[in-house]
Amino acid sequence: MLQEALLHQGEICREFLSQFKYCNSNLVNIHFILLDPGIKCADQDWGPSDRAAEQSYFLEEEFHYLDVTQIRKLAIFDMFHCALACLRNNLCLSLNMATSHGTDGKLWCELLSSDKKRNAENYHKNTSSHHFFIVRSPCSSSPCQNGGTCIPNFSSNTIDCLCKESFVGEFCEKAVKSCKDIYEANKSNMSKLVSLHLGSQPATVLCHMGDFGCGHGGWTPVMKINGNKRTFHYDSGYWSNKTEYNTAGGETGFDSQETKLPTYWGTSFSKICLGMKIGGQIRFIVINMKASSLYSLIADGKYRTTSLGRDSWKTLIGSEASLQSDCNKEGFNVLCNKSHHSKARIGIASNNQDDCLSCDSRIGFGTGGQFDDSNTCGNEASCYSPDNGAKHIKARGYILVH
């Protein structure tokens, strides 16, 4: 039937009817795309109003008639022809259409330059016609930004925007800068690759969604450290600069690939998730701290304290963890009085004396100092009275923010 409706004097209009349906029994969607504007149907005048048809709907009220001056009266095959004729006329705001076909198999259709709101006194029930008036889609103004798809809600004249992966907000107006943005928009616990807008070039990272050990939310990866390598040693320039390292490692999970991502200086947060993998087991702790970036806490080398306590830091290692009993200096840029002793960019350093002059044990990320300066992530405890014996445990470290 639809194909026949597109036939006119032996020619086929090169149009594609993408939607033609009744919604809630009285909403008719006439939504077409002109594939080749250079080809016209006979006796049809394509004009600017055709473009408006891409976002035009008709609301039907059965057995009603609006008695006003007609723009034009047509004999048509079906409602589609009548609605299309109205949409092509800039003056047409509504139409009356016969309820049944005549002896020639056609319906009469009246194009009207008014609607029931403007002429309520001339609007009444009858048995021979249905009335249709144009409902302009709330999507007509293209409110969804950054390539978002507009979904109209005609009952409330509102819209919903279906955003592309890297944008959120009511109108997709906000570029995603953290995995938290994605989680709060979708409330999904499924981890996935997301492009974050942190500068001139988007950065693709694996967003860790849900509670994997640090609590529910969207967790943004920042760094991955191999304690056997010196890439992120305490003295490495990577802690004080804005230079990436192996960004492809940000697209994988809790594996052995070392990485430093633009999220180190480009993502704000209220929580830091720290994880250490020893053998096949990963243990996590969380630091509650707000900052504009991890770079802002570490790059200047200033000591910033935390208050997790030695027992919390030891949970990263498990039952093998060992620290000396005193000092217990924890936080960011942890450095005892003597720089060749234990130190950590994030972690805790302890001593066997009631001071922090010569710390000989540590647990942390970006570490260094005696007694094993090559251990850059994990647990070092000397023979000077650690609470669980001397330890030399190198771990794989994971830093994420929320």
Automatic annotation (TrEMBL):
**Transmembrane regions:** none
| Residue stretches making up the EGF-like domain | 135-173
Fetch the PROSITE patterns from UniProt: EGF_1 (PS00022), EGF_3 (PS50026)
A Pfam family matched in the record: EGF
Q: Source organism's superkingdom?
A: Eukaryota
Sorted alphabetically, the keyword list is: Disulfide bond, EGF-like domain
Q: Disulphide bridges in this chain?
A: C144-C161, C163-C172
User: What CDD domains does this protein map onto?
Assistant: EGF_CA (cd00054)
The family database entries (SUPFAM superfamilies) matched by this protein are listed as: EGF/Laminin (SSF57196)
Q: Name the chain's protein.
A: EGF-like domain-containing protein
